[in-house]
Structure formats: C-alpha cells, structure tokens
Amino acid sequence: MSEHTSNYVPKSGIEKWLDSRLPIVRLAYDSFVDYPTPKNLNYWWTFGGILSVCLVIQIVTGVIMAMHYTANSALAFDSVERIMRDVPYGDILRYVHANGASMFFFAVYIHMFRGLYYGSYKAPREVLWLLGCIIYFLMIATAFMGYVLPWGQMSYYGAVVITNLIGAIPVVGPSILTWLQGGFAVDNPTLTRFFSLHYLLPFVIAGVVVLHIWALHVVGQNNPTGVEIKSKEDTLPFTPYATVKDGFGIVIFLILFAVFVFFAPEALGHTDNYIQANPLQTPAHIVPEWYMLPFYAILRAVPDKLAGVIAMFSSIGLIFALPWLDTSKVKSMRYRPVMRWFFFLFVVTCIGLGWCGAQEPADVVFRMGTDNLGQATGISVTVVSRLLAAYYFLFFIFIMPWIGLKEEPLPVPASISEAVLAAHAKKKG
Questions:
Q1: DSSP calls for 113-143
Q2: How far is it, in rounded angstroms, from Cα 297 to Cα 204?
Q3: Which among 301, 329, 298, 330 is positioned nearest to 314, based on CA atoms?
Q4: Where are the alpha helices (DSSP H) in 118-268?
Q5: Residue 41 and residue 242 in contact, taking contact as beta carbons nearer than 8 Å
Q6: Lowest pLDDT segment from 50-59, 276-285, 351-360
Q7: Is the Cβ–Cβ distance between 283 and 153 less than 8 Å?
Q8: pLDDT tens-place string over residues 138-168
C-alpha cells in the first residue's frame, strides 16, 4: 500500500552500499516479505503466484526450444519432430511448454473469475484490472502465434481462419491482412513473423506483469469481504503467511501440471497437428485450443462474418469495461445474494460456450425428431451458441448494471478483522 513505510534495515556493508545506490533488496523486502496482506485471503488468491510460476516456465522452456526450432515452412514441422526425438529431454521440454500454455490459461481464468466474484476490478483497482486485461489479451496473441509454429494441419488452418477474420474489416482489412500474412496467403513469411512475435510477446507480458504488481502494491490487495484495510489488525506480513500458503498452492498446481506432462501430454492438443500442414487438404473440423473455444463459439454464432468478428472482439473488450459496468456499491458477491446466482449462471454459460466451440455447428444438441433422410433434427449447436452468447452479453451490458442498482445487499462487516472473528466464532459454534 502507498501508506506502508519500509521497515527494511540493511545490515552488512554490501547491503548498505547497494541500498544507497540501487535499493532493489529493499524493494523485494517491502514487496514479498514485509508487505501487509489481508488476513482473510483464501486459496483463490494463490493463483496470482501460480501465474508468475507459469510465466517463468513458459519463457524458460520457450527460449530453450527456440534454440532448436527452425522458422521456415519447409523445415518447421521436421524441426519440431527433431526436438521431440533427437534433442536431449526435448520431448519433456515441448510437453511442458505446450501443456504449460493450457495451465497458464486455466490459472488465469480462475484468477479472472475470482476477481469478478469478489469485485477486484472496482475502485480504486481499475488500473490494476486493466493491466490484467492487457496481460490476458497479450496471452491470447502469444498463444495463437505459438500454436501456428509447429506447422501442423490444425496450426496452418487455424492461422488461415483467424488471419482471414482481419480481412472482414471494411476498407483497411485486406491491406492489414496482407501485411499480417506477409503475402496473399498464410505461408513462410507468416510463420517467420509469428515466430518473431511469439518470442517477443512473453517479455512484453513480463513487463506488464511488473506494472500489474506495482499497481497492486499501490492500491493494496482486495479480499473476500471486499472491505478495504483499515488498521494493522486487518493484515499479516506477506512472509511467512502468504508465502507458505502460496507455496502450498503452487506445489499442488505443479503436481496437476506434472500429471498432464508425464501421463497425458497430448490430451489437450489436437491430433491433426501431428500431420504436416497441407494447403491443399482442409481438416474436416477446424477448432482452436480449448482456452479460445468460448470466443470461437461466439464468432460462429453470428451468421455474418464481420458481425461475428465484432461480437468476438466485443466479448473480450467488455472485460476491460467491467469497472464501469458494475454499479453496485458492494464489491464482494459474498454479500450480493441475487447477483451471485447470475454469476454462477455466467460461469456455466462460459463453459457451455466452450463446449459449443468444440462441436460441429450443425450437430443436434437436443433431438426432437428425424428428417426424410433419417437424420436427427432439433436444437443445433448454433442455436445453443446463440442463446449462450446472448446471455454472455446480457450479463455485462444489462444484468450487472441493473442488479447493482436494484439489489439489496447483505450487511457488510465493518472491517476485515470483524469478518474473520465472526467466521471463527461461527466455526466454534
């Protein structure tokens, strides 16, 4: 917090010398040792630390794999196979990197839903939230470009589908598309520039993460009550309390990560990506990675191409506008019984959109009969996608502002300490 004064006292001569010239040890001490942390944080807050670990894993494994990867459309697929077969521990590296992307998005989605539930985007944390949204957007761009690099069938056609969406933009779209692809179609120049950007963007993400943490330490952490820190009794020093709790959460997360890497390394990938890209043979069903499926479902739910692109990017853009869409004076949904139900329905909606994104648009979800050819008829994936997409937008544009004005929230505790003592007394009976 801005009011927090440094308690760091350099002891050795070297520490005193460094502290008077570059107080980096003081910064680390104030940020990760003596930093006042709300005493009521639950395990949902450990995902901030987990995300930092994920970013480091992705950068380290990515840099090592880049030493063996060849960004050329004629050699990329073979170079990935060489990493898998000939480079010592190359298969582990690739599986860690590929599954690490999924773990990164898994953690960031929990981090975002936690922020949504506990109102971590509300004043004075608007900039903190916006920086987090920028990180998420950069993650999407980085993951998409990384998915193209193996130059498999799904990589290639994923790049074809996504880059061609740019061409739907009136007037300037075709020119931007040509610049993005480096020609008139996805080819070697596309792969080269995607590799360059995929290598660059993680370091940009790391820079924005530093700003995110900086903003966090200026305004202080939110907590499950949504009540701001009012006294020293509301807080505990970050170390050992939060570090031990985060460390335990990180270990559990890494065990889950290891299960995927060592026992199901290809469970989250697509089998078509083990076939070299062939511009003359389109896969039967083009799908993105699982973490992009909800937005892909929104894109397909709209029959017009340009309108679909606008809807897809708007669904991401609304997350940026969240601090100004929520009109409630109470941050945490723990004290908002009506809004809580709409939130859980929103979570189900996002999961449903993800499921729809993985299906064929014409597949029948709810069978109601058969046609003359004996084919099932009923409510298709497209119809379900439209209903879910409608709720997705209604949640942000109408439900959240309206409920915030009309809902009568439960009594909010006066302080974090009061909430902790009340919970303790309730547990003791």
A1: HHHHHTTTTSTT-HHHHHHHHHHHHHHHHHH
A2: 29
A3: 298
A4: 126-148, 153-166, 173-181, 188-219, 243-263
A5: yes
A6: 276-285
A7: yes
A8: 999 999 999 999 999 999 999 999 998 888 8
Measuring CA to CA, which residue among 23, 77, 417, 13 is closest to residue 231?
Answer: 417
Buried b (16+ CB within 10 A) or exposed e, 204-217: ebeeebeebbebbb
Helix (H, G, I), strand (E, B) or coil at 157: helix
The position carrying tokens 């298969």 is 91
Task: Report the alpha-carbon distance of residue 304 to residue 310 in Å, rounded.
Answer: 10
Neighbours of 125 (CB within 10 A): 23
pLDDT on residue 1: 47
What 8-state DSSP symbol labels residue 284? S
DSSP string spanning 367-420? EEEE-TTS-EEEEEHHHHHHHHHHHHHHIIIIIHHHHHHH--PPPPPSSHHHHH
Q: Which residue has the tokens 């009550």?
A: 225
Map residue 197 onto helix, strand or coil.
Answer: helix
The percentage of the chain sitting over the pLDDT mark of 70, rounded to a whole number, equals 99
DSSP 3-state assignment of 330? coil
CA 232 to chain centre: 33
Backbone angles phi, psi at 367, to 5 degrees: -75, 135
- pLDDT at residue 142, rounded to an integer: 97
CB 297 within 8 Å of CB 356: yes
Question: How confident is the model at residue 3, as a pLDDT?
Answer: 57
Of 409, 300, 420, 282, the closest CA to residue 358 belongs to 300
Q: Could you tell me if 6 and 26 are in contact, meaning their C-beta atoms sit under 8 angstroms apart?
A: yes
The position carrying tokens 């608007």 is 126
Residue 173: is its pLDDT beyond 90?
no
Tell which residue, 68, 87, 93, 78, has the closest CA to residue 152.
78
Residue with tokens 């993800």: 354
Give dist(CA 66, CA 93) in Å, integer. Answer: 11
For residue 152, what are the β-bridge partners? 276
What is the arithmetic mean of pLDDT over 102-123?
96
From 319, 220, 253, select the one nearest 49 (Cα to Cα).
253
Torsion sign over Cα 347, 141, 279, 149: negative
Indicate the average pLDDT of the chain.
93
pTM of this structure = 0.94
The residue-averaged pLDDT of 61-85 equals 96
Q: Which two tokens stand for residue 107?
A: 């953690």
pLDDT tens sequence across 324-370: 999 999 999 999 999 999 999 999 999 999 999 999 988 888 888 88
